[in-house]
Amino acid sequence: MSLYSEKDAGVPGIRPPLSHDVAEIIRARILSGELSDGAFVRPDRFASAIGLSITPVREAMHMLQSAGLLSLVPRRGFVVLPLSEGDVRDLGIVQAQVSGELAARAARRMTDDELAALRDWHEETADMLRLGQPLSLRSVVTEFQDPIYASARSPKLIWAATWGSAHTPMDVKITLPSCRQAVIGHHDRALAALEARDVPAARQAMLDRETWLADMLATRITQLRARRKATDPAA
């Protein structure tokens, strides 16, 4: 999901300004943990590191400040704000409700061809996960939900769901067997409900998926902080 305005998205011949591209780079580094809590990010140094002028970089950082990922410290630059376990769980509560409603609407509106395409994608992805391929959690989650959301034909709800996904720290690989099995299981349930046109089951399946994601990612944040503190007590 890009941080640029919805009105610019998908318009032929129009692409977001360069500052939005920079914002996506920084956002990904924050949510992956590459830029950790409390790290200072100076616009001039970051611009030099990626070979750009300072203007789009400063604009990007102000965008991320508005999104709650950075804070401006006078004369020192921008600092990465902490994303707590509670923050992730709170995002999950909102995400679960919106995602569940979109799935409920999709259960009524997805065409047979759309469902068949999603089934093919799911089976192929599930096979790769069973073989242990370290797929991106963000990619697997978004590629499954995007056609479901699109078929719901509810632009404002889609905007809310994609905004929530963009601020959730899913920039990790699916490596643990338990995580692979959970992703496959949640997608199996949701897809079966959609194919059966079972509105309550589709809503619950996606709600459960988002709740599981939030719990898993919140636990991961706690574990990463504990490891960081063990290696650097001053952290």
Describe this structure in words.
With 235 residues, the chain is mostly helical. The protein has 2 domains: 6-80, Arc Repressor Mutant, subunit A (Orthogonal Bundle); 85-230, Four Helix Bundle (Hemerythrin (Met), subunit A) (Up-down Bundle), CATH 1.20.120. It is 68% helix and 4% strand. The chain has 9 helices and 3 strands, in the order H-E-H-H-E-E-H-H-H-H-H-H. The protein has helices at 18-31, 43-50, 54-66, 85-109, 112-130, 137-152, 155-166, 177-195, 199-231; strands at 40-41, 70-73, 77-80. A 3-stranded antiparallel β-sheet has the order 1-3-2. A hairpin with a 3-residue loop joins strand 2 (70-73) and strand 3. The radius of gyration is 19 Å and the shape is globular.
CATH class identity of the largest domain: Mainly Alpha
Indicate the structural class: mainly alpha
Strand content: under 5%
Mean pLDDT: 86
What is the total tally of β strands? Answer: 3
Per CATH, the architecture of the largest domain is Up-down Bundle
Shape: globular
Low-confidence spans? 1-16
Order of helices and strands: HEHHEEHHHHHH
Stated plainly, the CATH topology of the largest domain is called Four Helix Bundle (Hemerythrin (Met), subunit A)
Number of helical elements: 9
Overview features:
Four Helix Bundle (Hemerythrin (Met), subunit A); 3-stranded antiparallel beta sheet; 2 domains; 235 residues; mainly alpha; 4% strand; Arc Repressor Mutant, subunit A
